[in-house]
Design brief:
Blueprint lengths: L2 E2 H8 L2 E2 L8 E2 L2 E2 L10 E3 L12 H6 L4 E4 L11 E3 L3 H15 L3 E6 L4 H12 L5 E3 L9 H7 L7 E5 L7 H9 L3 E4 L7 H4 L2 H14 L5 E5 L3 H4 L8 E6 L6 E8 L5 E6 L4 E6 L6 H14 L4 H9 L9 E4 L4 E6 L5 H12 L6 E6 L9 H15 L3 E4 L4 H10 L7 E3 L3 H8 L7 E6 L7 H13 L5
Parallel strand pairs: 4-5, 5-6, 6-7, 8-10, 8-11, 9-10, 11-12, 12-13, 13-14, 18-22, 19-20, 19-22, 20-21
Antiparallel strand pairs: 1-3, 2-7, 14-15, 15-16, 17-18
Helix pairs in contact: 3-5, 3-6, 4-10, 6-8, 12-13, 13-14
Length: 467
């Protein structure tokens, strides 16, 4: 999109270094000199570990039409400089200004878990009938959301915006930018407790989506989530509920696990129902499908179209992604990230393969849990014991805590091992891989758990599926 420089000044409240040429038109907006196009506005974002101001000269050399900065650069004379106190805040204001020009219906999705999967499912459903834009990958923060909005084409009929938060106040800020016509909280769970302190803190943060959205917005309520049901609601709001509970407007019932073939369930509305075979491992993905379907129903998508979209849906990589190494060995790659509820769901999914397979859980730390970290890691050990997991491999700071939780609940301590390198991991696993086995790998991003999946794949492939 082209921007007149005075539009930039007005939207951001910037102070120009000198009177801009009111006829100057900028060909776009960029925050990255690697992808900056000639004639675009370069915004020098400043974060905890980076500072775009260090690349202002590069932007000028690449042909930037103007620069938006927090501090003047005396070397730059060739292009207009616009000054703001906070370039990140100004970036959001530009996105908000562009959003107001669009006739697109905006759908905002937040939640502690599953929001990316719900976004992708909803996009598949809405694309049956509409030109639908969406957040790419997980660009769901104060940089990613404006970036997403600014690249939405003017002819998009719907746009699905994923919104994440790891600090209080972020959802409120993002909602002010997006001003959604539909607002969904998928669920709440104990995540980022370092900053949110408690599940109530998480609920308050996520609830900002409902309270900062326009009055006309439709709010989607997860009836299965007790914490979401505590969010205060205004009587004049339009509400669409979803879940497994009987009072839900859109409901999932008759849920049956089909193992690697996914999950079968019945999607019900007050007037009709349809059976869906969801090709995703883990019955918890039914919750995501119900949430996405509820958006589709509001947008006028038929149940048959929803069924078609969901039955052809391909899961997001590294989220309980089954990798068939050999007829006997399956790896469940769930290395995208880890929180207590998501880890418990993964362990329960692993248990579906009992009694035909040896069940092995390779687990790393769940981070950002603050003072509750020991409590939740102990719960993970307890869940492994209750779920009938046969072998546990542990890495990270809280390995001993998980081990304690498992042993306290009857797990055989001889079947728990620690590892720090590939040799140790493979040495411990080898005795269990001469018979059918399923290996779950899960832990927080910072532990780079995907590397252990690669190590396992390499070793098992070399030996024909047997280590």
């Amino acid at each position: 999109m082209n921007w007149n420089i005075m539009e930039i000044v007005e939207a951001t409240g910037a102070t120009p270094a000198s009177l801009p040429d009111p006829s100057l038109v900028l060909s776009g907006i960029s925050t990255d000199t690697r992808s900056l196009g000639r004639g675009e506005l370069f915004i020098a974002l400043k974060g905890e570990h980076y500072d775009g101001h260090h690349f202002v000269n590069v932007a000028v050399l690449k042909g930037a039409g103007a620069i938006l900065v927090q501090r003047p650069d005396p070397v730059v004379q060739e292009v207009p400089q616009l000054f703001v106190p906070d370039t990140l805040h100004a970036y959001g204001k530009l996105a908000a200004a562009y959003r107001k020009k669009l006739k697109t219906r905006f759908i905002a999705i937040t939640g502690s878990m599953g929001k990316t999967t719900v976004k992708e499912m909803a996009h598949a459903i809405l694309s049956k009938r509409y030109r639908c834009a969406k957040t790419e990958k997980n660009e769901n923060n104060r940089i990613g959301v404006p970036k997403t909005i600014l690249r939405i084409p003017p002819d998009a009929e719907t746009a699905i915006i994923e919104m994440g938060s790891n600090m209080p106040g972020e959802i409120a800020l993002l909602t002010e930018i997006v001003q959604p016509d539909r607002a969904m909280i998928t669920n709440t769970a104990p995540v980022h407790l370092e900053h949110f302190i408690s599940p109530e803190g998480v609920r308050i943060e996520k609830g900002a989506l409902f309270w900062r959205s326009p009055e006309h917005a439709i709010r989607f309520i997860n009836q299965d989530d007790e914490n979401i049901r505590k969010i205060p609601l205004k009587s004049e709001w339009i509400i669409q509920s979803f879940g497994r509970e009987e009072e839900s407007d859109v409901r999932g019932t008759q849920i049956v696990s089909l193992g690697l073939n996914g999950t079968r369930f019945t999607l019900s509305t007050p007037g009709s129902q349809i059976e869906i075979n969801l090709p995703l491992l883990g019955v918890h993905h039914v919750n995501d499908a119900i949430a996405a379907a509820s958006i589709g129903i509001i947008e006028g998508i038929s149940l048959q179209e929803i069924k078609s979209a969901l039955e052809s849906f391909k899961g997001t990589k590294h989220r309980l992604e089954p990798i068939i190494v050999s007829p006997n060995i399956i790896i469940l790659n769930d290395t995208y990230n880890a929180s207590p509820v998501a880890t418990i769901m993964a362990i329960r999914t692993l248990s579906v393969f009992h009694p035909t397979h040896t069940l092995i859980a390779i687990l790393g730390d769940m981070l950002e849990l603050g003072k509750a970290a020991n409590h939740y890691h102990r719960k993970i050990g307890a869940e492994c014991a209750r779920a009938g997991i046969h072998v546990i491999g542990l890495i990270g700071t809280y390995a001993e805590t998980i081990r304690t939780g498992a042993i306290e609940n009857g797990f055989d301590e001889s079947q728990i091992f620690y590892f720090e390198n590939a040799r140790q991991l493979l040495m411990h696993l080898t005795p269990y891989l001469d018979r059918p086995a399923v290996i779950l790998v899960k832990g927080s991003n910072a532990l780079h758990m995907e590397q252990w999946v690669k190590i396992l794949l390499s070793a098992l492939s070399e030996k024909g599926g047997n280590a």
